Amino acid sequence: MAIYHFSGQMLGKVTKEGKPKSPLACAAYRSGEMLLDESTGDKFYYDREVKPVTHILAPNHAPDWVYDREKLWNEVNKIEKNYNAQFAREFNVALPRELSHEEQENLAIEYCQEAFVNKGMVADIAIHRDDENNPHFHVMLTVRPFNQDGSWGMKSRREYKFDEYGNHILKKNGQKDFDKVDTTDWNKKETFNSWRKLWADKANKYLTQNNIDQKITHLSNKERGLEKLPTIHEGYVARKMVEKGAKSERVEYNKEVKKYNGIVSELNKYKQKKEQFLYQQKFSRKFSPSEKKKLSSIAKELKMFVDYDSIINRQNQLDKWNKSLVFSKDSQDKMAKMERINKESDLLKEALSILNGESERFLKSYYPTWDIDSFSEAEKLEIVDKTINLKRVLNEDEILEIEEDVAQDDLVRQVNMVLHNRYAFVMNVDNQIDKISNFKTLIEKKIGIFDHTNPSVLKEAALKNPKDFKHLKNAVEALDKLLETKEMMHELYDMELKKIYPNAPNRLTLEEKEFLIVGYEYYKQPIDRNVISDLRRYDVKDQSKIIHILTKSHSKYLKHKEMKEKFPDFKLSNPRYLLFFKDECLRNIDKLSKEDVRLLKQINPAQFANDEMNKTDFVRNINWSINQRIDANEKYGLLMHSEESNLEKSSSVLLGTLDQMLSELTRDRSYDSKKQFEEDLRRKSKKKNIHRSGGHSL
């Protein structure tokens, strides 16, 4: 069982008995190394059965010699000149034995870096595993800060006392009176308590990451409202005594405490059951019997616990699975998998709808003064969960914090989604870059960070605003990932275009490259101005069939199923495919029936998209433009057989017309190339600034 043990002490040059003590002896005992005390010439070495795992961590502005253990503690010995000076602060911390050796080591390093090194101390860490049942680490910390130039700083300064006339107040011996003021907060009780809490938080994070259902706490039994007595730290020596048959007072005391705590534990179980029953009457989920039955059925069908996070995660898994099937060969197995994906998606939507309905009822009951409609679905569910977990109504700050966390999670989810969907990525990348850049700028302004902020200010901002700094780090990483992927997509499309359109201009936007490639995928041939009038994929009969399938009153699942059976190569989930289809029908509109034309206008490509990233303004605008042309055709059909009409029919409405689009792609772009070159320079400069504001300090 994971235990909490975190004890500390100050190490001085004399013991309680008044005997001299060397910093080198203390460091040698913990590290298992032989160390020489230069002031006395004494060598110290303590043999250990298991060699300790050691590390030295230091602030960026510390001198290089701190990483030499012998040099470090000899320099400390020199600077702490008083015979009774304190030379180190030391902590002894129990490591969770449920973790692997590697995870224990990572945990100790991460904790010491955040708790001590980021505050300006040098941390000399030694992990002891002499007893596998008692893994722990010692950390010796310097008590004096370093100046920015790497020299030793002052531990404290004098603040002289003055009377009301501005004269020095004198002591009885005639010397000027003063207060001693520490230059750091390392000696404060509040700081020590924050270190204790941070250790519990870090250890619990590692336990959770490794799927270990245990928690430790820095709070005493009294603070936690428990009647159990705390055990004491037995230590390596006491355990060895018991192994050899001797008695240890520490071990015997702990045995008696455990017996007593066993009785208290049984009493507490009864109290907990009583408390749970009382709270059931207050903050609890209020699903109707039919909702409970439906959720139970869905959970059984999907073989998963149904809550918001599990639904979102499963939806993402299904999206990835669906995308992997799109480009595979059609087969009976593929159709079965597609049916399963669509069925599970419908069940997930139904479960999410039930959760959303219940959360609205809950919020209206316990938060009647809040504008419920202003919250997103994720925010509503999170507020409900936290209210139930804390068993109280949340205050305004806690609700605002939930809104920030949900917005950040949503941002990360969107970035991950956009990188797994090539079509959506192309249509949204610049909007996403702007969105994340704006988010990054807001956080930077909030915590006072700018492009040329020096490392010390960055660290101070990180300590004062850890949550905002984490958000900033995520935004910087997301921007880097987007910019890198955008460049990669350019290279990928260039390779495809070189094979399909060897004479395509060098300077095309991602959107233009996407247009040419999707056009090739749809018509199965390069789309060229010379062949516009001959571009056909489906004859009139097939066009009519597809129009009727897409406009049936069936569910989207059944439409997908029927389309796959009759037209397996039709990429129904890609809205741009549907736009090309509508455009093709528009150029063939005089051969379609009036009913077909009426239904054609009802086809909305965005409705068939698998995710929100595909429902872009680009898709909606072009669909609207096509529908305008259909309306115009119905209203002014008199030009249908004229020469002008034939010319008109040979074009498309995609970004104006297909003819116009191809004309645009093949025009002289020397001026645009110059503009693009300047934009690339600005983009590279911007990316450098991103790294400066984030940098390694993040």
Describe this structure in words.
The protein is of the alpha+beta class and 698 residues long. The protein has 4 domains: 6-209, BirA Bifunctional Protein, domain 2, CATH 3.30.930; 235-280, no CATH class; 284-394, Methane Monooxygenase Hydroxylase, Chain G, domain 1; 515-668, no CATH class. Helices cover 56% and strands 7% of the residues. The protein is built from 23 helices and 9 strands. It has a 5-stranded antiparallel beta sheet, sandwiched between helices. A two-stranded antiparallel ribbon has the order 2-3. Strands 8-9 form a two-stranded antiparallel ribbon. The longest helix is centred in the middle third of the chain and has 35 residues, at 332-366. The model is unreliable at 273-282, 638-657, 666-677 and 683-698 (pLDDT under 50).
Please describe the topology of this protein.
Blueprint: E1 6-12, H1 23-31, E2 35-36, E3 43-44, E4 53-57, H2 69-79, E5 86-94, H3 101-115, E6 123-128, E7 136-141, E8 156-160, E9 178-182, H4 189-209, H5 235-243, H6 249-280, H7 289-302, H8 308-326, H9 332-366, H10 377-390, H11 396-419, H12 422-447, H13 455-464, H14 466-500, H15 510-523, H16 540-550, H17 556-566, H18 575-586, H19 594-602, H20 617-635, H21 643-649, H22 658-666, H23 670-694
Antiparallel strand pairs: 1-5, 2-3, 4-6, 5-7, 6-7, 8-9
